[in-house]
Amino acid sequence: MAQNPWKWIGPGLVVVVVLFVVVSYLYDQKVQMEVVSHMPEPPDVPGGGVYAGTLTDSDAGKAYLRLWEVNTRRLNGPAYDLEIRLNDAAFFKALAAVESKDERDADARYKAYQARYHFDRDLVFTVELHGPKGRLFDVKPKRLATLRLDAGAAYEAENWSESNRSSEYHREAVVTFARHDGHPILAPGTKTLELVWRDPAEERRAVWDLSQEP
Questions:
Q1: Edge to edge, what strands does the sheet with 203-209 contain?
Q2: Is residue 168 a contact partner of residue 79, using CB atoms and an 8 Å limit?
Q3: pLDDT for 130-176, tens place per residue?
Q4: I need a labelling partner for 158 at 20 to 30 A (CA). Which of 5, 88, 167, 176 fits?
């Protein structure tokens, strides 16, 4: 009596199909993991994850762009250029508004930034170094930055928090200045902030006039 070949071929095909599906799934997972592992982490500086191309679509975005420019000072130098941005309360408020879906979310984000950066008592800056020749990690920036208030009291940098996106050609960090007695570093009536950057090549100064409204 002849045997039916489909009795064996049918289950065999099912096994082949199942193996193909499993192998394809594992391969896709491997590719996805490789892609994710090579994706850079989000920037860990205030506003680092906000893309300028989308900001002009909303009033909140336009307000944030204006504050970004008002608070930023650009200083050229022989070995590298500097870009220094004052991250004050107004800046964080505008940033929270851009990143949020509604007013309640914006308020929560603003408070989270306040808890992280303590800009209600400290002065917080983002400092970027851009050097076409590289070797920027040879620079010891925390030792170079001094803050002056109204050309009087001077403070050394309390903390230099390097960004995860820094490289030999482009460095970025959050720099904090604080008082050791716990009081706000910025006294009422202060009119000017001056961040003095001293390196062997030259001295550069970034000034903010607090008497002027943005």
A1: 154-156, 145-149, 192-198, 203-209
A2: no
A3: 999 888 998 888 789 999 999 688 999 998 999 988 899 999 999 99
A4: 167
Please give the full DSSP string across 132-165, using - where no structure is assigned: TT--GGG--GGGTEEEEETTS-EEE-SEEEE-TT
From residue 30, how far is each of 25, 34, 37, 52, 122 by CA, in Å?
9, 6, 10, 33, 46
- Sheet strand arrangement including 170-177: 72-75, 81-86, 123-130, 170-177, 159-162
Cα dihedral 98, 65, 42, 172, rounded to 10, equals -140
Which amino acid is located at 171 in the chain? R
Given a contact cutoff of 8 angstroms between Cβ atoms, the answer to whether 161 and 173 are in contact is: yes
Strands 123-130 and 81-86: antiparallel
Other CB atoms within 10 Å distance of the CB of residue 25: 10
User: In the structure encoding, which two tokens stand for residue 37, read together?
Assistant: 């592992």
Quick one: tokens of 201?
Answer: 């090549």
Q: Residues in the chain, how many? A: 214
> Which residue has better confidence, 155 or 50?
155
Q: For 85-120, write each residue's pLDDT tens digit.
A: 999 999 999 999 999 888 999 999 999 999 999 999
Query: Rg of the Cα trace of the chain?
Result: 27
Whether 149 and 187 have beta carbons less than 8 Å apart is answered as yes
